[in-house]
Amino acid sequence: MKDQPSPLRETDDEARRLARVLLRSARYAAIAVLDPDTGFPFASRVLLATDIDGAPVILVSKLSAHTKALTKDPRASLLTGEPGKGDPLAYGRLTTQCIAEPVERGHRFHERIRARFLDRHPKAKLYIDFPDFLFFRLKPEQASLNGGFGRAYRLDGRDLIIQSSANEAIAAKAAETVRDLVERHPDVADSLAERLNAPKPAAWRICGIDPAGFEIISGDFLLRHEFETLAADSDHICSNISKIAYSIP
């Protein structure tokens, strides 16, 4: 018998960019873990944010079934990607296999992750500091991208992580960077939304920056934009954002 052709395409930069956007633009995800009592997969829904290097972050109750499962076995799978009108299988989606790392109070990443999570999910302020809640940082190991019919790719976990020596420095000044940018350009988020053809429900705001790009949010709408090249520092991020918002098309 002849060998069947592989359904996978060669992974290129376009596929990597689509995968990163599908992961970093998701406000929530389906998460699958392994039930410690039965060994069966257990699926649930979680709110999603990202750390400064693009790694997904979840906030969970210690009482939930998926938290108990991750404590026993840190392997997890995330499904991200929004369907639209018509056939939901015609839209891009990403399955990311991860290793969950707990980030509790006192952890060196905790305050940074907490701030980034609240930027994306401000209503979580009602319970984010409850003693029975904690964060997990989900380290991508590998991923499967389906960009629509006939567009399947396999990615390495490193394809989804921002490989930059500037991560920590940019994270330390992120809030200040956004505040200074908005003070200079009060309409910057709405200008970005218009230039990026975002929906127009209400006022937009910048809810996250990193060396690879930024997010803007308005109500339930969130839009991720990736820079052409990694930003070297906070000034570079501001310059990139200003050019996108105000340069002549």
TrEMBL record:
A Pfam family hit: CREG_beta-barrel
Residue ranges annotated for the CREG-like beta-barrel domain, each copy included: 12-154
Chain segments annotated as transmembrane: none
GO cellular component terms, A-Z: cytoplasm
Protein name in the entry: HugZ family protein
